[in-house]
Amino acid sequence: MTVEIASLLQAIESDMQQVVCAPELSYAPLYAMLRYHLGWQDAQGAAVAGRRGKRLRPLLCLLACHAVGSNWQQALPAATALELIHNFTLIHDDIEDRGETRHDRPTVWTLWGVPQGVNAGDAMWALARRHLLTLSQMGHPAERVLAVVSMVEESCLELCQGQYLDMASEGDYTIDQERYLRMVRGKTAALTRACVMAGAMLGGAAPGLAEQMAVFGLELGIAFQITDDLLGIWGDSSVTGKSTATDLEARKMTLPIIHALAWERERGQQELVTLLRQPPSDGQLVPMLAVLERSGAREVCQRAIDAAQERMRDAWHNMHLQGPEAAQLYELACSLVGRQF
Amino acid sequence: MTVEIASLLQAIESDMQQVVCAPELSYAPLYAMLRYHLGWQDAQGAAVAGRRGKRLRPLLCLLACHAVGSNWQQALPAATALELIHNFTLIHDDIEDRGETRHDRPTVWTLWGVPQGVNAGDAMWALARRHLLTLSQMGHPAERVLAVVSMVEESCLELCQGQYLDMASEGDYTIDQERYLRMVRGKTAALTRACVMAGAMLGGAAPGLAEQMAVFGLELGIAFQITDDLLGIWGDSSVTGKSTATDLEARKMTLPIIHALAWERERGQQELVTLLRQPPSDGQLVPMLAVLERSGAREVCQRAIDAAQERMRDAWHNMHLQGPEAAQLYELACSLVGRQF
Question: Measuring CA to CA, which residue among A47, A173, A33 is closest to residue A106?
């Protein structure tokens, strides 16, 4: 039987609300920062019904648990914890990138300062992990809980390593696709992998099945990130909500840029690299897009997405999951990489 | 049988060295930041034999394991993890307090910037927790490992909550002793408690014994912090290595200051609060110290330390631990709160 996505989203949101809640009055302002970040409150603490995250990661986790034939509620604390971990990374990323807005609202550090922002991110991470450990009160064997916690911790370390690479690559116009993929594996795919793996493990999947699920989640994350890179340059701004120029102006080392730079280097040209080294201006957009098109960056990205999707499909078939429960996970995954651009 | 403290310190340092080690070349600069912070390398990555942390927390953990009658090696991954957690907090604290030096060397963020500094702290924390989970490969029952991990995570959340209170108290000259103690419990005592508790739990202590150990560690942390507050104002700078004026100049809300401010408020006086509101200058030191002395701040702190030590002693006697193994833990604990000033 399929499950209603709306009820999953409601369960996730309600579980998150219970976790991110001040245990006593003196800590209320700390929790108010977290609740603000999660989109539940405004900066003064009043409830808002604004734009929140899409909660894709916890959905993947619950649907993976359901897909291997178990009740999705068995994975709920893990789903919630992984969404909170994702949000911890967003709070710290905003500080690291000096990002001033997210979902059209000021980021945590712009409102409460860098010191409180760093600590708020730490608190979000600590809350996530404490909640993950409540799995042991749900009837899961202790060994299974330990295996899930260990897998999640491994992924967290990969997130930090990926984030290091990302920051170290800033302004480095010579990085290659191998380094890009390493970065994406750490920054994006480690977490999507952890989500589906946690769901499968908590659904009682045998190790072989969980391993294939890991491949599925990893390739999904890679395809998702490259799709995001494409959308960041050629996306329909009325759909993506951000101007097509944003990623170019921010000098993000996305796959199209990395490819076009390598293509130029091979030809001894340096039009794009010269443009990137200049301070951002409106006039740069047209010539940048021209180099990107000439280099075939769009097609290269599309091929990379296709290849990741192919590996996703292979992993999927190796799992031999049947029925409408499994189909729901597969469909959500495909929808994330088949977005319009 | 007693254990040699030097061999414990060596085991801790060697375990830490193995944990904080780049898994591959591309992440080497990230790990170099962590190894620099831990005092093993200079900023260029060359080995140094400089001043390191005293590794008191992991020592407490190993001695607690030994004190309850077990082999200290059973607790080594936890001891190492707790020292790394302590160091994660130092990396982030330095960013939050804009601390530019630690152990006479520039702090991580001053060398590599705030963005990499935040992420380096995150990576240290992730490494600590991944290492803690290796306890399950040492023959400990899964339930015991889960109990230790849950206890450590709870303490980590308390650290973040305590750090929030500490930052929020900056410049607030009305905070009372209750809030101060809440701050100290979170910032300092949660971790000393976790150290001795982890040692006892991994040494196979029964729940009742572990609970008394928790009280022992908590009161030790409180006594330790108030001792630190006293040393920060009246300490012998040739012993503490910092000028007596440092804490006053930094406007730290330590117990002597909090007491003296309350004492002044009761009398409708405001000499100290006026001095604190002015920018730091050499001429302030003498009148500040005079108010502190008049208010009896030294005696109040000494009484608070005595009271915490009394509760430590009670917890100790309730544990009925005998023999030279137990005596080693008790002696280390006492030496930490009986420092010269």
Answer: A33
Residue B341: closest CA among B211, B270, B214, B247: B247
Residues A80, A57: Cα–Cα separation, whole Å: 9
Which of A123, A143, A161 has its CB closest to that of B30?
Answer: A161
- pLDDT score of A341: 42
Q: How far apart are CA B205 and CA B318, in angstroms?
A: 13
The count of structural domains within chain A is 1
Q: Among B122, B124, B145, B180, which would you mutate to test the A interface (most chain A Cβ atoms within 10 Å of its Cβ)?
A: B122
Cα separation, B287 vs B241, in Å, equals 23
- Whether the CB-CB separation of B186 and B52 falls below 8 Å is answered with no
Q: Contact, A94 vs A109, CB < 8 A?
A: yes
- Establish if A28 touches chain B: CB-CB under 8 angstroms: no
Distance CA B59, CA B231 (A): 22
Q: Which residue range is the domain that position A308 belongs to?
A: 5-337
Rounded to the nearest 5 degrees, what angle is found at the Cα of B290, between the Cα atoms of B287 and B293? 155
Chain A, nearest residue to B94 by Cα: A115
In a domain, B56, yes or no: yes
**A168-179 burial by CB neighbour count: b if 16+ within 10 A, else e?**
bbeeebebeeeb
| B chain contacts of residue A96, beta-carbon cutoff 8 Å | 114-115, 118-119
**DSSP 8-class letter at A104:** T
Residues in chain B: 341
B161 contacts A27? CB cut-off 8 A: yes
Given a cut of 60, whether residue B340 has pLDDT beyond it is no
Q: How many CA atoms lie within 13 A of A242 on its CB side?
A: 17
Q: Cβ of B27 and A157 within 8 Å?
A: no
H/E element holding A101? strand A101-102
B341 in a structural domain: no
B158 exposure class (CB count in 10 Å sphere: 0-12, 13-18, 19+): buried
For residue B79, being part of any structural domain is answered with yes
In a domain, B212, yes or no: yes
Q: Which pair of tokens denotes residue B236? A: 């012998």
Question: How big is the CA angle at A21 (ends A20 and A24), to the nearest 5 degrees?
Answer: 140
**Average pLDDT of the residues in B241-247:** 67
Report the C-alpha gap between A265 and B150 in whole angstroms. Answer: 52
What confidence tens digit (pLDDT) does each residue in B194-218 have? 999 999 999 999 999 999 999 999 9
> Under a CB-based contact definition with an 8 Å cutoff, are residues B196 and A162 in contact?
no
Is the Cβ–Cβ distance between A152 and A85 less than 8 Å?
Answer: yes
Q: How many CA atoms lie within 13 A of B2 on its CB side?
A: 10
Q: Which residues of A touch B128 (CB under 8 A)?
A: none
pLDDT confidence band for B239 (50 / 70 / 90): low
Q: What is the phi/psi pair of residue B41, to 5°? A: -135, 160
- Give the pLDDT confidence score for residue A237 in this predicted structure: 66
Residue B102, SS3 per DSSP: strand
Residue A105: in which H helix or E strand, if any?
strand A105-106
Q: What CATH code is carried by the domain that includes residue A265?
A: 1.10.600.10
Percent of chain B, pLDDT > 90?
Answer: 87
d(CA B206, CA A239): 59
Residue found under tokens 């020292």: B83
The per-residue pLDDT for range A68-120, each reduced to its tens digit, is 999 999 999 999 999 999 999 999 999 999 999 998 899 999 999 999 999 99
Interface of B with A in 162-191 (CB under 8 A): 163-165, 167-168, 179, 182
Taking an 8 Å cut-off on Cβ atoms, the answer to whether B164 and A129 are in contact is no
